[in-house]
Design a protein that fits this description.
disordered N terminus; alpha+beta; globular; 147 residues; four-stranded antiparallel sheet
């Protein structure tokens, strides 16, 4: 199976998205959407610990290192925009689901994983564990986070 995003092909091994999809469906059915998303965010943080980023000396360095890891996973890319008291993260080219699970449900679940992943990576750069990475908006093609 191969997904196509903005001129870039993202291959996926057959069966993996099906497995992920049935796991997500089971989590939501058994625990509910809110608890499933909290669990997925926690798993994203664990993934960040498994794939730590090298120390970044600038926002540009951080963006590059994050995108190198995201490319390794074929999970799209992020653009970072520093603000006075926040960091905005725009995640583009989100992998498509398996076309069985609804797009909004898939984006919500994968968005929770990404929130945890970004949170873990930012904490690894010296960020505070008490400052959450929150999904502010999903416009269907880009997930917008604030830290």
């Amino acid at each position: 199976m191969s997904e196509h995003f903005g001129g870039v092909s993202h291959p996926h091994q057959p069966g993996w998205f099906d497995l992920v999809s049935v796991l997500l469906e089971g989590m939501v059915a058994n625990a509910g959407q809110e608890e499933a998303e909290a669990f997925l965010q926690n798993r994203g943080e664990a993934l960040a610990a498994r794939y730590p980023l090298p120390e970044a000396h600038s926002v540009q360095d951080l963006e590059r290192e994050i995108n190198l890891q995201l490319a390794r996973f074929n999970w799209g890319f992020v653009q970072l925009q520093p603000q006075n008291n926040a960091l905005l993260l725009q995640h583009h080219a989100l992998p498509a689901g398996d076309n069985v699970q609804g797009a909004a449900d898939w984006q919500s679940a994968f968005g929770a994983v990404l929130a945890g992943l970004y949170s873990g990576w930012l904490q690894g750069q010296g960020g505070s564990a008490t400052v959450p990475v929150t999904l502010e908006r999903n416009d269907g093609s880009t997930l917008h986070y604030r830290y």
